[in-house]
């Protein structure tokens, strides 16, 4: 396996897909151990039309995907209730259920819905939170994710990431028989895909700006790797870092003012820092090895990157002030393609050993490594902006698909198109 920044062209094994197809989710692993929570079905007022979305199912799937919660099957509810006053907390406690979510849906005067819900603490017998959210029918799925965010934050103290978006690369067949490469964004669970850019030439390494308004990516439209920045809303795009060198693997600084990137001078890839305001390019590494795949630490003071200077790809950290690099990984023969958790305490990486290439995390303070996946060609890990899940690319039945695993490894799921492949996933920021 070769890091995409080392030899980007070798990773272009994308096949035909439909640019607007929804990524289908399939739970591939589930381990008990999350906090028991009951998500009761949303109640619809008599005479009102049934909504197009099952809010309870969306909320259950959201919370389950983090590995922190275990939604209870509806058949195991100790009682049926439609309002908080009907809840017998002792019954729920006796069944080991700690939290209950009740919801109601009412048609409002503007042709939409008022989505109401209450989060109840069965242990203490009280309400933790309650909201009423007006919404148009077409936005029910978005509101369901928002409800999941509110519940997650109330119970964990950490903002939920269910209203975030992901970006990825798919392809489709062009009229001339050549593949067309498509940069797309979608909800975190693959719904509501939107095409950002389509090209007859390969696209690689999408990277969200910290404000979620722009995406940097690599395009081969001029028959060499170049970095473009594109506005998501308006579609305006611009070439960055100059057209005369081979530039790849862009990574935004936490303040959105700089890009770390891989730039090849005289055939030797090194890490550079581009100031987006002044267009000043500063060389960070200068070594005869291949240095690539930079990613910033959350404080913006260091860059972590992949280098083969030890003979095998390993991860290094270097201060942007120029202090010498520090090797971070020693376990296994291959560690590359890092992402840093939002709190700066964990690395997600591609970890290679005799079994193949899996996604693993490494605690920066203790050095402990934990392998989270069991594929043979897993790559491109990207943390959710709250650190609860990791998105990555893998291979399933000979095709490239996306997958996600909870940070604790309890739950994993696969996201794939009915036809074709998707690669190069990256998780966007919190809204």
Strand runs, count: 31
Structural class: mainly beta
Number of separate helices: 3
**Rg (C-alpha, Å):** 23 Å
Strand content is: over 45%
Terminal-residue CA separation? 34 Å
Mean pLDDT: 90
Q: Tell me roughly what share of residues is in helical segments.
A: under 10%
Quick tags:
mainly beta; 431 residues; 3 helices; six-stranded mixed beta sheet; disordered N terminus; single chain; five-stranded antiparallel beta sheet
SSE layout and pairings?
Layout lengths: L23 E7 L4 E5 L3 E2 L10 H11 L3 E3 L17 H6 L4 E9 L5 E9 L4 E10 L4 H17 L8 E9 L5 E9 L6 E6 L3 E6 L5 E6 L6 E6 L5 E4 L5 E7 L5 E8 L2 E8 L5 E3 L7 E6 L5 E6 L6 E6 L6 E2 L6 E7 L5 E8 L2 E8 L5 E3 L7 E5 L5 E8 L2 E8 L4 E6 L5 E6 L4
Parallel strand pairs: 2-4, 2-5, 3-5
Antiparallel strand pairs: 1-30, 5-6, 6-7, 8-9, 8-31, 9-10, 11-12, 12-13, 13-14, 15-16, 16-17, 17-18, 19-20, 20-21, 21-22, 23-24, 24-25, 25-26, 27-28, 28-29, 29-30
Q: What would your notes on this structure say?
A:
It is a single chain. This protein has 431 residues and is mostly beta strands. Helices cover 8% and strands 45% of the residues. Strands 2, 3, 4, 5, 6 and 7 form a 6-stranded mixed β-sheet that branches. A 5-stranded antiparallel β-sheet has the order 1-30-29-28-27, with no helix packed on it. A 4-stranded antiparallel β-sheet has the order 10-9-8-31, with no helix packed on it. Helix 1 crosses helix 3. The longest helix has 17 residues. The two termini are 34 Å apart.
């Amino acid at each position: 396996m070769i890091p995409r920044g080392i030899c980007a062209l070798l990773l272009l094994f994308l096949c035909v897909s439909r640019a607007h197809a929804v990524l289908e989710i399939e739970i591939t692993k589930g381990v008990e151990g999350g906090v028991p929570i009951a998500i009761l079905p949303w109640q619809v007022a008599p005479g009102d039309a049934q909504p197009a979305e099952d809010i309870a199912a969306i909320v259950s799937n959201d919370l389950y995907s983090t590995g922190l919660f275990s939604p209870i099957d509806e058949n195991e509810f100790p009682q049926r209730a439609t309002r908080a006053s009907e809840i017998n907390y002792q019954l729920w406690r006796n069944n080991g259920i700690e939290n209950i979510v009740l919801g109601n849906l009412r048609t409002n005067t503007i042709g939409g819905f008022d989505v109401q819900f209450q989060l109840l603490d069965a242990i203490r017998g009280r309400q933790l939170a309650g909201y009423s959210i007006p919404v148009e029918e077409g936005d029910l799925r978005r509101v369901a994710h928002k409800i999941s965010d509110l519940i997650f934050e109330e119970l964990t103290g950490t903002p939920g990431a269910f209203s975030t978006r992901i970006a990825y690369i798919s392809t489709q067949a062009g009229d001339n028989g050549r593949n067309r490469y498509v940069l797309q964004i979608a909800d975190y669970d693959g719904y509501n895909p939107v095409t950002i850019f389509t090209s007859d030439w390969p696209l690689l390494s999408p990277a969200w700006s910290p404000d979620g308004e722009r995406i940097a990516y690599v395009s081969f439209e001029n028959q060499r790797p170049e970095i473009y920045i594109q506005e998501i809303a308006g579609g305006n795009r611009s070439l960055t870092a100059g057209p005369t060198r081979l530039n790849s693997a862009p990574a935004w600084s936490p303040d959105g003012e700089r890009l770390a990137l891989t730039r090849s001078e005289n055939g030797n890839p090194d890490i550079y820092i581009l100031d987006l305001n002044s267009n000043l390019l500063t060389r960070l590494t200068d070594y005869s090895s291949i240095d690539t795949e930079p990613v910033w630490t959350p404080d913006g003071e260091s860059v972590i990157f992949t280098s083969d200077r030890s003979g095998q790809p390993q991860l290094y950290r270097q201060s942007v002030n120029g202090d010498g690099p520090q090797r971070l990984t020693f376990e296994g023969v291959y560690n590359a393609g890092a992402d840093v958790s939002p709190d700066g305490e964990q690395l997600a990486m591609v970890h290679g050993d005799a079994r193949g290439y899996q996604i693993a995390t490494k605690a920066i303070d203790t050095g402990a490594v934990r392998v989270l996946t069991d594929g043979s060609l897993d790559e491109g890990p990207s943390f959710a902006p709250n650190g609860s899940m990791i998105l990555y690319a893998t291979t399933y039945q000979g095709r490239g698909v996306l997958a996600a695993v909870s940070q604790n490894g309890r739950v994993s799921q696969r996201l794939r198109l009915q036809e074709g492949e998707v690669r190069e996933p990256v998780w966007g920021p919190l809204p």
